[in-house]
Amino acid sequence: MALTQDLRRIAEAAVRYAQPGEEVVGIVPTEPSSGARSYLCAYSGEGGETSWLVLEEDGNAVQDRARIREVVSIAALVELAEETAGGGDLDELRSQLVALRLTENPAGIEEAEEAGLALEAVIGAAPRVATPARLDEIGAATLRLERALGGQGSPFAVAMKQATATVEKLSRDVEAAYKVPLD
To answer: Which residues contact 116 (CB under 8 A, 6 or more apart)?
Structure first.
């Protein structure tokens, strides 16, 4: 409940930075380093253009480029991890595992089902804070599932390695459309 209240408070602060015709369309709470929470805020204008702002706990805008990159990076990596874990559709995967257990009941199917449930629990429901520890937890739970499924290699690891370019592009986009001057 505390996170929901924090998000409401930050949403109120974010609105103060909105231009006429612009609205806050997303807020991602992050803790790129232990105990230092910041919020990545996305705004949408009338013409569909997106602008960005990182707010600290007190609702003030972050102007430090390094801190902004840190916030954007962990937000993007955790979102990507959540979206790609277990093949990207955990409900569908779990349904397929149940069907497989009922029709063929191969050895290890229970372990795979348990690993799928564990991954689903790690991902959890929104709102969530994007942290390096959360990223590690998702990675570990996904690895457990991939091993239980008997796959060779890790599609999740490949997706995360390929994320570097996406994260860098998002960081550039955020800096280019940042709402306040940067240091």
So the answer is: 86, 90, 93, 94, 97, 145
CA dist 171 and 136 (Å) reads 21
Residue found by looking up tokens 């009922």 in the block? 102
Global pTM exceeds 0.70: yes
Report d(CA 113, CA 149) in Å as an integer: 9
Residue pLDDT, tens place only, 120-179: 889 888 889 999 999 999 999 999 988 888 877 788 888 899 999 999 999 999 999 999
Phi and psi of 26, rounded to 5°? Answer: -170, 145
What 3-state DSSP class applies to 46?
coil
**Between the CA atoms of 94, 100, 102 and 108, what dihedral angle is there, to the nearest 10 degrees?**
-90
- Let me know: does 123 contact 85? Beta carbons within 8 Å: yes
